[in-house]
Amino acid sequence: MEARSFSELRKVLTDMNPADIAEQMAGIDDDKSLVIVFRLLPKEQASEVFSYLEPTEQERIVNGISDRELASIVNEMFVDDAVDFTEEMPANIVKRVLQTADPDTRKAINQLLKYPDNSAGSLMTTELLRLKSEWPVSAALNYVRRSCMELESITYAFVTDDQRHLSGVVSLKEVLGSDDDTLISEIMDDDVIYATTTEDQADVAERFKKYDVVSMPVVDGEMRLVGLITIDDVVDVIEEETTEDIYKMAAMAPIEDSYMSTSVFALARKRVVWLLVLMISATFTGLIITKFENMLTAVAILTSFIPMLMDTCGNAGSQASVSVIRALVLGEVKFGNILRVIWKEFRVSIIVGLCVAVVNFIRIIVFYYMGMYQLDAGQNIFLIAGVVSMTLVLAVICAKFVGCTLPLLADKAKLDPALMASPMITTIVDAVSLLVYFGIASLVLIR
Amino acid sequence: MEARSFSELRKVLTDMNPADIAEQMAGIDDDKSLVIVFRLLPKEQASEVFSYLEPTEQERIVNGISDRELASIVNEMFVDDAVDFTEEMPANIVKRVLQTADPDTRKAINQLLKYPDNSAGSLMTTELLRLKSEWPVSAALNYVRRSCMELESITYAFVTDDQRHLSGVVSLKEVLGSDDDTLISEIMDDDVIYATTTEDQADVAERFKKYDVVSMPVVDGEMRLVGLITIDDVVDVIEEETTEDIYKMAAMAPIEDSYMSTSVFALARKRVVWLLVLMISATFTGLIITKFENMLTAVAILTSFIPMLMDTCGNAGSQASVSVIRALVLGEVKFGNILRVIWKEFRVSIIVGLCVAVVNFIRIIVFYYMGMYQLDAGQNIFLIAGVVSMTLVLAVICAKFVGCTLPLLADKAKLDPALMASPMITTIVDAVSLLVYFGIASLVLIR
After folding, report:
1. pTM of the predicted model as reported, rounded to 2 decimal places
2. N or C: which end of chain B has fewer CB within 10 A?
3. Whole-number percent of chain A with pLDDT over 90
4. How many other C-beta atoms can be found within 10 angstroms of the C-beta atom of residue A100?
5. Do residue A191 and residue B16 have CB atoms under 8 angstroms apart?
6. How many angstroms separate the Cα of B257 from the Cα of each of A205, B55, B83, B248?
7. Which CATH class is domain A130-238?
8. How close A387 gets to chain B, by Cα (Å)?
9. Which of B13, B206, B275 to mutate to test the interface with A (most CBs of A within 10 A)?
10. How many Cβ pairs within 8 Å bridge chains A and B?
11. Domain A264-444 CATH class label
């Protein structure tokens, strides 16, 4: 590049994988050099590399190339990739794209842009393999051979009637494996798994996983075939949905872009709401402490176990809630299983609670003899360690119970279980464990 | 079923999707009825439904059918599905499967069973489309038409030399779209994205996403083509890996099976280790409180803010850590970006910290005038609210700093960032926020 040996660079680039070229190009800081490298790519490869680039780089390139070059890239791209690209661009570039693209491409892009974000319609490509049911295999194969180069996926072909209503599906494998004079209607399957344009993309992804399919036709409200979703787009949807779940579980509203391209202000906004809600709810935990202030003054050492109790029970509760939320997402658990889940978590919590309690009892005694705790006259370290450990057992059982039931109830009430996860549960569990703690302490220690 | 109208049931089943049948069959509690329903299925559909069943149901059916029936199912299944099934079965069933399967199938299963769990080899199927580079398209298509029905995926064909070394890849689309006398060598791409048998499945999944491919050939140590991984298996891997990450972030060792099929004992074991570690580390937070006991006795109201401070800072820290961990997994952030990440989180933490602090200040004053806090003589609620709010700002900044740097450092040190997530960070942040709290309080309140 620096030696301006462009023909050599071109040769190297031609042999490279488009995804790798895109990765390398993202590292070029100078806009002019970026456009030069891009122009070195042969036409077909150029549009492929372009699809792999991040929106920032796409914009930098578009600003540096002519309308004719832009038109050639857009016309060459698969329609769904062109739409993805257009959606990320500012208005002036969108206008340029639509003005320069050829009429067919423009129509297809325009149509897809109209579907709401995160709908099946916005995910699909309009280029798909259509066959007629009355065709014999030989005619179908001739048609496939003539049209296949413009299509994204030919793994499945779709059969429509004269009104473009979806009536069947047949794998290309089946077509190839059948005799020349077999009719498509004989080998097609009329029980098609399909999506509708307005359906949420998360539901479509769910269906892909359930039926283990690699592509799914998309129909409009009148069952007319309008597009095709391929599994590589679904992989992206699954990742997006998972990121959203993970963000919600960590008490954040999900961000739309990647972490690095989200502004400081947007990040702060996504995070502050939950922090405020949880701060306010945590003050009630504080009020419980205020209520038992006299006891804490009388047996001062009790205060020092509060963080440990809160943390341990909070963790125990989120272990249960996260397990159940993930099982809900993966379809392993339903609300109908609530009793089995509670019974399971109950037994787990007894084992876990006893382990933690025993270790904690020994730890307190050891720390005491190491001189790390001071007691007032008349206080017995065994009694105090017993109170703390008994609290641990009971509070862990409560925590696991709250942790496993809340997500299931949320799901039943059509709320998002991930939103009810760790943060909310921590606050509830904190309050519960302190109440158990002070309850047991006043029974045992205060006479 | 109850009316014993089997022929009708059979008709209904034949029209249903295998995944739906499998779902319904999981609901049949009686082993005999389950086997009866399964026997109603036509042979080909039977093996497909069988692949969709959970291991529990597979085992119940295998125990109720003859060796001949078992052999027919296994021979009919795709090899990778047969291996998945065999891996989940107890030893006696594995033996029966291998004894009854036909020699070719047995050899293929045996070979795949030898690859370590979670390796590319364990994920692949051995059935794939091989072409010779010297064949013209017409010959290749003839070959495809004869052999395709036994293959799982024919979207890509692979070209090998006489020693079975992988030398190229060509999409079936390209083959179909080319003239009859074009040679495969002219249209094949010799720059193949491949996996090796012993490679970790997570790395393979990474590569699938990066290059947006739908299948990937697998080679052995000598670059000989031995199998094919299709994207539907990769979707399962991605889900598995994400579940592992989510479990680790919630302080649990990942489970191997689904939540419902993991035993109580196994669940307890996966959870108790982290609970113990975190409990022990939380005692140090407790010791900090013990150290400042005198101050807490002097200004008793300070105790009641401890849970709120710990929770808020813990949440602020895990927000940052979870964002960074997810960005690492998605490849959006690298260790090299650490300064940009810190600068970003620093600005976010100032905005978020100030918001939380202001709301908290007002809340304390309001609660005070509502009579929810009692002060001793000589104490000023504005001063106390100021101390708490100032702590919030500083502790939130520290929490976000710890939260965003730890995962990046872990990643750099080749440790798993998810393991360093929320739980560990909460403990650190708890200690830090208490130290800040008592530090500011002793400066301002104690004269």
Report:
1. 0.76
2. C
3. 28
4. 19
5. yes
6. 22, 10, 16, 15
7. alpha beta
8. 16
9. B275
10. 334
11. mainly alpha
Domain-wise residue ranges, chain A: 6-114, 130-238, 264-444
Q: What is the pLDDT of residues B279-307, one digit of tens each?
A: 888 888 888 888 888 888 888 888 889 88
pLDDT tens per residue across span A157-189: 999 988 889 999 999 999 999 999 999 999 999
Residues of chain A found within 8 Å of residue B312, distances taken between Cβ atoms: 275, 278-279, 282
Chain A residue with Cα closest to B147: A177
Distances (CA, A) of B85 to A208, B25, B96, B97, B113: 21, 17, 13, 10, 11
ipTM: 0.75
Domain B6-114 has CATH 1.25.60.10: yes
Residue B191, chain A, CB below 8 Å: the answer is: yes
Per-residue pLDDT tens for B53-82?
Answer: 888 888 888 888 888 888 888 888 888 888
**Contact residues for A240 (Cβ-Cβ < 8 A; gap 6+):** none
Which residues in chain B have their CB less than 8 angstroms from residue A245's CB?
246
Residue A215: which residues within 8 A CB-CB, separation 6 or more? A153, A155, A156, A228, A229, A230, A231
Which structure tokens are listed for B38?
A: 């399964």
Q: How confident is the model at residue A421 (pLDDT cuts 50, 70, 90)?
A: low
What's the topology of domain B130-231? CBS-domain (3.10.580)
Judge whether A6-114 and A264-444 match in fold: no
Q: Which residues of chain B have pLDDT under 50?
A: none
Q: What is the pLDDT of residues A204-235, one digit of tens each?
A: 998 888 888 888 999 988 888 988 998 888 88
Cβ within 8 Å, pair A246-B251: no
DSSP-derived secondary structure letter, B382: H
Q: What is the length of chain B?
A: 447
- Residue B181 near residue B137 (C-beta atoms within 8 A): yes
CB spacing of A304 vs B290 below 8 angstroms: yes
Rg (CA), chain A: 31
Residue type, B192: V
Instruction: Tell me how close the Cα of A91 comes to any Cα of chain B, in angstroms.
Output: 26
